[in-house]
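Reopening this one. Same input as before:
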Amino acid sequence: MTWELIRITGLMALALLTVSTALGILGPTIRRPTGRLTSVSVHLTAGVGGIALVIAHVFLAVIDSWVAVPWSAAIIPGTSAWEPLWVAVGTLAFDLMIVLAATSAVRTHAPGVWWRAHILAYPVYALVWLHTLTIGTDRGTPLMIGLAALSAAMVTAAVVLRLMAPRGPVGTRPRPELEETLV
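Same output, byte for byte:
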C-alpha cells in the first residue's frame, strides 16, 4: 500500500509542479489583469500543493520498509543507500523548492532576491522530471514515460509561447494608431 501512495503522491506532485512551472513561465505573457490574477493564483496554489505532495512523498518513502530511505536523505543529497544518485536528484530538487518557497514568502520585501531565486524553478523542474523517470519500479513503463513526456511538452510549450510573446508591462496594449506602424 505504501508503494502506491509513494507513486501517487510523486505523480500528483509532478502534475502540480508542471502546472505551476508552466504558468510561472507564461505569467508575463498574460495581458489582461484578471487573467494575470487568475494565472498567478493557480500558479501559487499548484506550487504550494506540489510542495505539500513532495513532502508527503518523501515522508512515505522514509517510512516505507522496502526502499529504506533514511531521514537524512530528505535534506542531504547522497545519504540514501537505496538508489543513491536518483534519490539525491529528488533531494536536491526538494531543497531548491524550499529556497523557492522561502524567497516567495518574502517577495514583497526583497523582490530582487525573489527574482534571482525564482530562476531556480527551471533546474528544479528538470530535476523533478529526471527523478520521475529514473526511480521506482515502474519508471520504464509506457504510462510513466507518457506522463513525463506530457509534462515536458507542457513546460516546453510554455517556454516557446513566452519567447514568442510581445514584451511590455502587464495590462497594456499598443495604442490603435501605433498598430499600423507595427505591422
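So the earlier flakiness isn't reproducible anymore. For the record, The longest helix spans residues 33-63.
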